[in-house]
Amino acid sequence: MAKQIVVISGKGGTGKTVLTASFAALAKNKIMVDCDVDAADLHLLLSPVVKTRHEFRSGRTAVIDMKKCQKCGTCLPICRFEAVRPDFRIEHFSCEGCGLCFHICPHGAIHMDENVAGEWFVSDTKFGSFVHAKLGVAEENSGKLVAKIRQIAKELAEKQALDYVIIDGPPGIGCPVIASLSGVDCALIVTEPTLSGLHDAGRVFEVAKHFNIPVKFVVNKYDLNPAMTERIEEFCRTQGVPVIGKIAFDTTVVQAVVEGKSIVEYAKCPTENEVRKIWERINRGL
Amino acid sequence: MIISVASGKGGTGKTTVAVNLALSLNNVRFLDCDVEEPNAHIFLKPRMNGKKSATIPVPEVDEAKCTYCGKCREVCAYHAIAVLPESDSAKGNVLIFQHLCHGCGACRLLCPQGAIKEVNRAIGVIEIGDKDAIQFIHGRLNVGEAMSPPLIRQVKAYTNNTKTVIIDAPPGTSCPVITAVKGSDFCVLVTEPTPFGLNDLVSAIDVLKRLEIPFGVVINRSDLGDGNVDQFCQDNNIPVLLRIPFDKEIALLYSCGIPLVQKKTEYKEAFRMLFEEIKSNIVR
Question: Is B143 near chain A, with CB under 8 Å?
Fold first, then answer.
């Protein structure tokens, strides 16, 4: 069975996508998944050619039929999501689709519409197949969309007898992160030597622990504050988690992103060398 | 006035902008609504003087009244309730999956027997404090908890119309962000001049247009990357309110949790100017 590796961070902007794209370039027999569905960027480094696109239907939204509505106000105070406006229009982006207003309206003026909450794609890239998605503007259920594209990737990996599913995770610790983490073989936490980076990595580490996921750490831009890097390494020692790489601050990475390339393809440089080692160490640990 | 600070992409400098703006103004209430990963306290170092549990209401069934009719299961849109009906050999049972419950209250209101009451389930904490004249409130979601919007709404309940309220929003473009920025008078979008920054800025702008919130852009690390964010803003008539160049000293201050304006006081003026820009953009 294909090994699933997810790159997460807690804090945003620490280098998840840059690392994921590099692993995509380095791994053999793999499929990639971008689970950061509400700020997806991996496609910018993989130049996908979309092969199939699919609607993602999830959840419902209340709609008030103004012809039937008597403006009696029954629905107003019972909505806990502040979704019924005083003019009896539903704010689509606030409605969580619970249907309470639909059930309780004395005039049968409310119905529930199924949401098209986004779109997902299976694409070909220079490195292999890629499953990605676009959450609709101001839509919810990103966790369900993540679960969906992970399931598709897993099925494709099985069908094509692939060795790896490489997953770009979202920031934070909430529902899309939990959906990205569940059942993976390795979570790579990439952090930076800042108090925020340490704080946030610590929290997402707790989430991974909570779900019994094996964790490894990478410190990106480690030389911007060596003392803070030491604190992160100390944290990892006390937690019994390996730090499998330290990447120096390098503006070449920014240039590679601007060119739409992974650092591995872009240039022979210390960063590229360190990223290769990190991938080897992940592989050895699986 | 409510000013939210958001970004599509994470790590672009939301907290830096929110904190330094707060420190450059008077009469501020600061709400850190990035409840999954709250960081503003690291920089503001408020003296905390209040803490309360943040909860959502979840159903509890009174078995004495329940007839296992299954109405609650039928109305629950989140599949958080299962009902095993009574039979000759076994007594009925109602199973509540608390982590799936959004706390909408439909099961309680619609139970024909009045057999359901709601009890509070903790999903995180709200902490209240102050830093000099800044009133500080943040939420901290419990680890393993999936749903942040209820906690964000509870932090936002501390909005105060007599003050300048600064909201530090979470990254992304989905429900946590929408919950955080909804109702703002203005939203500052912080980005970086890279393809990632631009791509996620475009998504964030779609959200703000949908919410009808006026916005402007702050470009952080403005000298690393390319000119496409600038070009995009120019082409679309989007005000660029402030540019912060990359500077190793700024990065080092950030890493130690020291607000920029404390050590590089010239930025205080820049953030006051940012506030003036925001005000003029709201009027327009």
Answer: yes
